[in-house]
Fold:
Amino acid sequence: MAYQGVIEDFRSIRELKIPRRVPCVACSEEFDVRWHGTYTYEEFCQDGDKMFEVVKASIEEFDYDWAWLQIDDCFEFEPAGVGCKGDGNILRATTSYLPATSESVRALPTMDPERDGRMPEKLKAIRRLRQHFGNTVLITGSIAAPFSACGLMWGLEQAMIVMLDDPKLLHDGMEYWLGFYKGYIRAQQKAGAHAIWLGDCNAFSGLLSVEQYERYVLPQTKQLVQYAEKELDIIVWMHNSEIRLPHVLSHIPLGVSIENMGPAAHMAEIREGTRGKQAISGNLDPIEMLWRGNPESIANEVNRIMAACAPGGGFALCTGEMNPRAVPAENMHAFMDTAKKLSA
Structure:
């Protein structure tokens, strides 16, 4: 069950030290909603009380060491004018995009997370979870990184074209999101978040080279991370679903507390390459292991990852991506039960 000292353990990991216990978490929201069985995902994502109910029950059932309020990618893009759609148990996604023009960027609204769209519902869920669990789980809000935000605003293909054809337009778009996200992080911290999940999968190595990342993506992302980490003292947990060590090393100047690795990452190689430089987490495969595996194969994989990464500190156990909603509950129990036995 949630435990006193978990926040100190996460902060030890952030400082590349050995925690008292290795925290164990999962990117489990789709699974949690199906397991809970009361709401569709579309109902869940619109109502802070329902978010609280499902996340609370899931933590109590599966013993996650965090409350993960990623929910979906659309909270801030809907009030910005981006078309978004979700239906039943299909998560909301951006479906129609704003023009990639200077005029469109200048016309973007000044959004208030306390007022606009579904953001107040997310803040309500964070607030209720913090009131309920206090400091016994890591309450984790979420944002997109500025580059990925431009991809969600313009569409990924158009954002990639703009990066090459009009770097100033990309810079201006990222500056808008940099300014907004500073306020959105503050609002989530005020509501009770200990940490922020920073999603930047559009900057994954399958899409950008290290050189492109360092030139176009890193500067504004670093400003945002440094603001959150240094000025607000909130844990930034980045996820690019990264699998390649050179790209992981290119992220170190950002100064994030933890980076989560994608399912295909070679964790022993990543751990050795980042040891003493960057805390990492990962990377149980949610499809091949949690969905298609069985308790025995899952236990073996958890043992392998923990043996490769936990010694020496600076590591938390997590899935490498979002868990499919169809994961059997016995498999999730096997993951967390094995992890807890190895975490001390």
Notes: The beta strands are 66-68, 83-87, 90-96, 138-144, 195-199, 235-242, 258-261, 279-284, 315-319. The longest helix spans residues 167-191.
